[in-house]
Design brief:
By secondary structure, the protein is mainly alpha-helical. It folds into two domains: 35-150, Up-down Bundle (Methane Monooxygenase Hydroxylase, Chain G, domain 1); 176-369, Methane Monooxygenase Hydroxylase, Chain G, domain 1 (Up-down Bundle), CATH 1.20.58.480. It is 71% helix and 2% strand.
Length: 370
């Protein structure tokens, strides 16, 4: 007997889908566990320094004392024979913040060069960019008295907390959406699965709205933002931690962004992938080339009713749009206080325009089915 029965084929397909979605779930669970391990680690014995000295050194512009500590810590890092990945990531977190403070205050080039060498080595070991990122500033940052921050302001603590919460909610949304992308659009569970992704994304929106309310633009721009400058390491410039490094691109790609017409926007989105942890970079590579839900809905609606699945994807798109408006607004408010180039606002404008256009396309599919 040749061939496979339809029911057997469906069962096999569901098993393959489960394995694929489980792979994403397991990968992001591993990422969360690794982040917690990094937050617990203090390989350079920096806890006391960050709790008692770092903020005051920054406030007093005590560059020579900061450079002395940073240089000593860099030499300790370079002396570690075979650092583990967790140790390397914790060193990137702590030395990255020291380097940022030194760059901010124009620290001695000799000590900063030593720090750069240590960061370059730890970046190679960790397989991540050789400086602090939104992950080291957020979920890999210890809580409570061990928390690393530049200013000690309540605004900065809220800023760090927003990254912790935002990355967690984004990961949960990615897991649910990845499961939906492995489903048939006919699957009765498809709308509920997409709605689960939208619900977690709604939490990211709420975090962004809270950021705008709790973090005063004048404090962020005048006191916090100056520590978030570009650092050059091994001949390449690396940007500071920022919201663009939260892996929302995975949600965009799975939902609508399988084609980005503007070259500038495409480059911006792809550049941020370099700052993702390895497991997220692998996820982006796995998603690359797969049709988005919008593309699948467009093809599906030509022959069948796409009403319920299209409505679910439209609800998800609505949350993406709701995120993009306050995100752009926060950036504009800070730009008015301290101009640092127009590139950021230009690409955010393009990203918002593309997201809204995708939402309109999905809305038209929904309306055709009513």
């Amino acid at each position: 007997m040749t061939g496979v029965s339809a029911s057997s084929s469906n069962v096999a397909g569901r098993r393959r889908q489960t394995r694929l979605s489980d792979r994403a779930t397991n990968a992001l669970a591993l990422q969360s566990a690794e982040d917690e391990a990094v937050a617990s680690a203090d390989p350079l014995a920096c806890d006391k320094f960050f709790a008692e000295e770092f903020v005051s050194l920054n406030r007093d512009h005590a560059t020579s004392l900061l450079a002395l500590r940073a240089g000593n810590s860099a030499r300790e890092a370079l002396a570690i024979f075979e650092p583990t990945r967790v140790v390397a990531l914790a060193i990137l977190r702590d030395l990255g913040m020291m380097a940022a403070a030194l760059v901010h205050d124009g620290g001695p080039s000799a000590e900063l060069a030593q720090v750069r060498r240590a960061l370059a080595r730890m970046g190679r070991i960790a397989d991540e960019v050789p400086r602090d990122t939104v992950f080291s500033y957020g979920p890999r940052n210890p809580r409570g008295t061990r928390e690393r921050h530049f200013t000690g302001t309540s605004d900065e603590r809220a800023f760090i907390g927003s990254f912790r919460e935002g990355i967690t909610a984004t990961a949960s949304s990615i897991v649910a959406l990845r499961k939906a992308c492995e489903m048939s659009l006919d699957d009765e569970d498809f709308p509920a699965t997409v709605d689960a992704a939208a619900e977690r994304l709604r939490q990211v929106v709420e975090i962004m709205v809270r950021v705008r309310r709790e973090i005063r633009a004048e404090v962020f721009t005048g006191e916090i933002r100056p520590f978030f400058e570009i650092i050059e390491i091994a001949g390449r410039e690396f940007v500071a931690p920022g919201g663009a490094q939260i892996p929302l691109l995975a949600i965009d790609m799975m939902t609508w962004a399988d084609r980005i017409p503007q070259l500038q926007l495409y480059r911006y989105l792809r550049e941020n992938v370099d700052y993702y942890p390895r497991l997220y970079r692998d996820l982006i590579e796995d998603i690359e080339g797969r049709p988005s839900l919008l593309q699948r809905l467009n093809a599906y609606s030509k022959g069948k009713s796409a009403g319920r699945p299209a409505q679910a994807v439209y609800r998800l798109m609505a949350e993406l749009v709701r995120f993009r408006f306050p995100h752009r607004k926060v950036t504009q408010e800070n730009m008015r206080l301290r101009a640092y180039g127009s590139y950021q606002t230009q690409v955010l404008d393009q990203l918002l325009e593309n997201t809204v256009a995708a939402q309109v396309r999905i809305k038209s599919l929904v309306e055709k089915m009513l």
